[in-house]
Amino acid sequence: MASDATGGRPRRITALDVARRAGVSRSAVSRAFSRTAYIDPGKRALILKVAEEMGYRPNALAAGLMRTRSNLVAVVAGEIGNFHDAALVAQLVPALIAAGKWPIVIDGSVDAEDLGTPDIFSYPLDAMIVRGGSVDETLVAACAKLNIPLVFSGCIVEADFVDSVCCLNAGGMGMAADLLVQRGRRRFGYIGGPSSWASERERFAGARARLRAAGLEFVACLSADYTFEGGSRAARDLLSAQQLDAVICANDAMALGALTVARQEMGLAVPVDLSITGFDDIGQASWPCFNLTTLRNPVDTMVARIVDLLLTRLADPTLPGRVAYIEPDLIARDTH
């Protein structure tokens, strides 16, 4: 590192510093780090040797701006405390890097109007990926003004040049309801998430439709927050007030909370006395202490669809908005 003019903290070594030390031009340094540019092999070796000694690395962002594409992709990460969202981001980040993109991950709890706090729109973004259960019109409008392509995961956005990836939530939850009806369950409770989330509305509608097709209705429904603690509280209230033989939960975290309360606090045998199902198939769902029956919302498939939509959109920004639907799989374990 070189020192700044005032002798203060070290600054980043620049190509000009390397050029001066090696006795070459600034453009020669740039050519030395380019795979396609011609430069005398001896001069290239000298420049690379000096650069290594000085600790110089090319500024990829500056180079990207010169090519009119930065390769920066903002990822609004959903609720990191949500196990499924966390797993998705954990796979999405390396997938984007493998595709030659540089992800900037933003906490999904930041409101669209508050994105000015890190001021994400001051960065030269190539695109933005949003993981969330509801559509934020403010964010859609802001990206449209700035010509930033958007990919939504978790809900469908009907807007020009916006792509979406979404699980077939209603169909998946319908499979869970059918399974429990076939099991002989008749008194159903439901633990859902925030009603503002499209995925929650779809999951509840799918379960209710299949129950009605069997001549049944939910005995009681409560809303929680998609967390283990929220599922625990809701299950405690449901099972204390109602005689139920099945509880359908809108995600796995709440289902695991409900399962823990049913067994440890209510003394219920699951699945003998009570059936419990979840949605997503997070890693903890398959732990032997839970072995939860659930719907798999496959993270690897979703990540592949997101990256495919992103790269196709960047290659042709004029494409109409597209939707990729993900088929859930019923994973029958020990709680139904």
General description of the model:
The protein has three domains: 2-58, 434 Repressor (Amino-terminal Domain), CATH 1.10.260.40; 72-168 and 300-328, Rossmann fold (3-Layer(aba) Sandwich), CATH 3.40.50; 169-296, Response regulator (Rossmann fold), CATH 3.40.50. Helix content is 40%, strand content 17%. The chain has helices spanning 15-22, 26-32, 41-54, 60-66, 83-98, 137-145, 169-182, 198-213, 228-241, 252-265, 299-315, and strands at 2-3, 10-11, 72-76, 102-106, 127-131, 150-153, 162-167, 188-192, 218-223, 246-249, 275-277, 294-296, 323-326, 329-331. Strand 10 (246-249), helix 10 (252-265) and strand 11 form a beta-alpha-beta unit. The radius of gyration is 26 Å and the shape is elongated.
Number of domains: 3
Termini, distance in Å? 62 Å
CATH class of the largest domain: Alpha Beta
- Reading the helices and strands in chain order gives EEHHHHEHEEHEEHEHEHEHEEHEE
Oligomeric composition of the shown chains: single chain
Proportion of helical residues: 40-55%
Number of distinct helices: 11
Indicate the structural class.
alpha/beta
The overall average pLDDT, rounded, is: 88
Question: Looking at this structure, what is the CATH superfamily of the largest domain?
Answer: Response regulator
Query: Approximately what portion of the residues adopt beta-strand conformation?
Result: 15-25%
Structural features:
336 residues; alpha/beta; 434 Repressor (Amino-terminal Domain); Rossmann fold; four-stranded parallel sheet; 14 strands
